[in-house]
Amino acid sequence: MFEFASVSKSTVFDKTEWLSFSPVNGKWIYELYEKDAENGKPMRQAVERLFAMSMEERETIYTAIAHDMKFAEDPANGFQFESIGLEKGAQSVISDFFLYFYNVVLCSAHFALQGLTKDKFGRADFAQEYFSGKNKKIKYICPVCLQTTTNAEREDDIEHYFAKAWIPCLALHPYNLYFICPVCNERYKSMKRVFHDGIIDVRRVFLPYIDTIRDRVKIDFIHEEEKDRISLAPADESETYINEKIDSFNQLFDLENRWSGFMEYYFETRSSLYKSLDFSDIDELKEEMRRDLKKAACLAVNRPETYLETKYLEWIYGSQLKAFYSNMVQKDRNTVVI
Ligand SMILES: [Zn+2]
Question: Residues whose CB is under 5 A from ligand 1 (ion)?
Fold first, then answer.
């Protein structure tokens, strides 16, 4: 549509000209445009406002959208979003247009995407596609906090990494949409901005589908007087902007605090498990833990929800074993002193 508007000399949205410009998808888009539905009103008005603009203005809008759509293509080069710098009138055209399609496709109704789907397409179909194939592994788990859900396909929220109110032309961009649990989405990310420090540069943030955070961030466990806590740290300190990326991720989802809360739970349940096995000395505990770790490392590959506890167990095994053992054999748990 925006490409068409940038080359059309017409001051109205002309059906014949449009259908010859876009023979494949033009028909269903025009049908929606023509449809006299209340929710389509802002979109129709946006199209009218667009064609009332000068060719130069339309060209500027199209160039900015086409540019922003490529945000995931080469993030290492310091991509800047252009649509956010457009004047207000242009931004409202983009917003009214794209958010209508987002609402129709993924929120309210179903409609046929000719050439893309055999049948009607909606949120449920999108979710079904998403959780088949390589995303099958996360059907029962939130990819951010690694907590289990009974069925992510039905229960998870579709999240926009870059808010749809801020960059509406990415409202349906596949690299800007992903499924996360309602806790991560509503309680933590909510309306927060990915660029929390105000510096808009994609090199400074993790991008969904592009960055595998698990490979780039290591979990450090820290023992404090009363409890253990975790800290997210770069796997490779020399990686450019890695600290900024971790900061951004942490302020969006508050994972350091949330995951630190689990440490006491892991400690107590592990401690009570090993205590029930009545080891005669620390070496027996060590051997049992070694076997458990071996199994846990294999399990964590397919059951990401066990990843954090496995890392915690590795840390105890590697550097806290004596303290863990002495705590375990005490009748009542007191503060660990290492
Ligand atoms: Zn989550």
Answer: 142, 144-145, 181, 184
